[in-house]
Amino acid sequence: MSTGAASTNLKIGIVGFGNFAQFLAKTIIKQGHSLTATSRSDYSQICLNLGVSFYKDVEAFLEADNDVVMICTSILSMSEVMKPMPLHCLQRPTLFVDVLSVKEFPKNFLLQVLPEESDVLCAHPMFGPESGKNGWKDLTFKSNRSFSRLFWFAVLVLKKEEGCRMLEMSCEEHDKMAAKSQFLTHTIGRILSEMEIKSTPVNTKGFETLIQLKENTTKDSFDLYSGLFLRNRFAKQELENLELAFKKVKQKLLDRMIDVQDIDDVPLSQRVE
Amino acid sequence: MSTGAASTNLKIGIVGFGNFAQFLAKTIIKQGHSLTATSRSDYSQICLNLGVSFYKDVEAFLEADNDVVMICTSILSMSEVMKPMPLHCLQRPTLFVDVLSVKEFPKNFLLQVLPEESDVLCAHPMFGPESGKNGWKDLTFKSNRSFSRLFWFAVLVLKKEEGCRMLEMSCEEHDKMAAKSQFLTHTIGRILSEMEIKSTPVNTKGFETLIQLKENTTKDSFDLYSGLFLRNRFAKQELENLELAFKKVKQKLLDRMIDVQDIDDVPLSQRVE
Ligand SMILES: NC(=O)c1ccc[n+]([C@@H]2O[C@H](COP(=O)([O-])OP(=O)(O)OC[C@H]3O[C@@H](n4cnc5c(N)ncnc54)[C@H](OP(=O)(O)O)[C@@H]3O)[C@@H](O)[C@H]2O)c1
Ligand SMILES: NC(=O)c1ccc[n+]([C@@H]2O[C@H](COP(=O)([O-])OP(=O)(O)OC[C@H]3O[C@@H](n4cnc5c(N)ncnc54)[C@H](OP(=O)(O)O)[C@@H]3O)[C@@H](O)[C@H]2O)c1
Known about the structure:
The structure is a homodimer. Chain A contains eleven helices and eight strands. The first copy, chain A, is α/β, with parallel strands linked by helices. Chain A folds into two domains: 11-169, NAD(P)-binding Rossmann-like Domain (Rossmann fold, 3-Layer(aba) Sandwich); 173-264, 6-phosphogluconate dehydrogenase C-terminal fold (Orthogonal Bundle). In chain A, helix 7 (171-194) packs across helix 8 and helix 7 packs across helix 10 (235-265). The N and C termini of chain A lie far apart (86 Å). At the A-B interface, helix 7, helix 8, helix 9 and helix 10 of A face helix 7, helix 8, helix 9 and helix 10 of B. One NADP nicotinamide-adenine-dinucleotide phosphate (NAP) binds at residues 16-21, 39-41, 72-75, 77, 80-81, 99-101, 125, 128-129, 220-221, 223-224, 227 of chain A. One NADP nicotinamide-adenine-dinucleotide phosphate binds at residues 16-21, 39-41, 72-75, 77, 80-81, 99-101, 125, 128-129, 220-221, 223-224, 227 of chain A. Chains A, B: This is Prephenate/arogenate dehydrogenase domain-containing protein. Chains A, B: It comes from Ficus carica. Chains A, B: Pfam families: PDH_N, TYRAAT1_C.
């Protein structure tokens, strides 16, 4: 990693230049770092417009002498993308930063496949193209260092300049909490989308927040959502909790129906004192 | 109903002086109308503080010579409360305004039990103590006239002075839309409450709106929620739609799990071109 006078201008490479990577790229470029990217699809035109060097060829990408490589692939394709990478082409000890929305899985995987001399920062930016539209202020960028030396990268690039709050926690802790919050939220958004809910002339305020939730959730890919489920070992339990809670609410309504039928069945004369 | 110079100052009686009625009462009093109330529970102290005359005795309440009687009981207790009322004690043709959150049921019921010379306005204020906390502006007061003559009451008391938007529609139309919006919203809030969702250090914005939803929903009584279900003939279908949508989302996740297992099972050598 470069040090000295120029050390705040990093060379950053991005693997997987989809929706989220493009969103990050815009800020990183504004901060004066130089960016390269590689991806399954051809993003050379978009990269040209952004001022990012695009490499279709992974080998050339790895040879581009980056200080930092950010992994921005979908959760489910990350191992597919990383395993065949000719990592011996790296020009120097490199910091790998993964931004996947689950954390145990990339941590375990990256520690296995990356060269020993590489550092790994497992981070989950708690915002996206929708919720971060108006800047990243007050949004949480949760980070986890598998190794500690290069934590300053996150602090420097992601926190300081955009005013993010940085939380450190174990990957396990993250995944437990994310299952109970983010995965649940996406699940409800997907259910509402499946129901095709629509604005009505009698919307309550609560219903309006559900319409908004549905719209925001479905802007993320189904790959992202299914990754939250398949690569977070706590998510399955949460899906079961949701199902159970639904059944309980339904049962309460049915019980109430029986109570009320009993009242309705009493002849009026007996009810009136 | 009084006419002439004093006609904008109405005598309004409220049946069922619970949460929502007290919320309405504060505004109605500010507007200069005079209020009386009756309820199952004893609200004489609260009424004294608000400047409302409280009658424990229903007969005395009905003899109080009101222009308007607003029915603010729970959805499920409305028939129980209204059936035994000695309506012959009414001193004049009276306008009954029901504010229940379902509309077909009170319309049919009231048209059966109220004296012929009474008018009925079936209204659903689309706001409550929570969402209307900061005034009623831009919140919908949906009204339905079973009879038309006294629509001005709603316009006068509820719309003009608080800037509410007034929508007219059939009770059936209302109930269809309310099942798809309000009942669904309450159901999701109740499910989240059953799951005991809690704020985490990694809340997304979407998750924060769900916490808010849970809190607002459970401030309303379970009576209110179960009334939305039991007295709206369209709600059952909506509960089924929700269950079906949940199953579909779950199935999509399980299908994706099988796809991904297939990929995971292919030996690495065959996957790398
Ligand atoms: N969106 C957010 O708000 C947000 C927030 C925080 C973290 N994240 C994380 O950021 C990452 C990217 O998210 P995203 O929103 O851009 O959408 P995504 O659907 O999760 O990922 C899209 C990216 O994955 C690549 N990809 C998908 N399948 C692939 C395959 N079979 N082989 C190779 N590459 C494949 C795509 O490459 P091509 O485009 O080249 O096809 C694209 O770069 C995810 O890990 C996500 O969890 C997202
Ligand atoms: N809360 C809202 O945001 C909102 C908005 C629009 C419309 N509404 C409608 O307004 C009405 C009142 O709602 P709410 O929020 O105050 O709560 P609620 O639980 O729906 O109703 C409470 C009222 O019902 C009475 N009640 C309940 N069971 C009774 C029984 N067995 N016998 C006699 N009276 C009984 C209570 O009387 P006591 O208090 O004397 O026990 C109290 O006045 C409902 O029809 C609701 O649909 C509410």
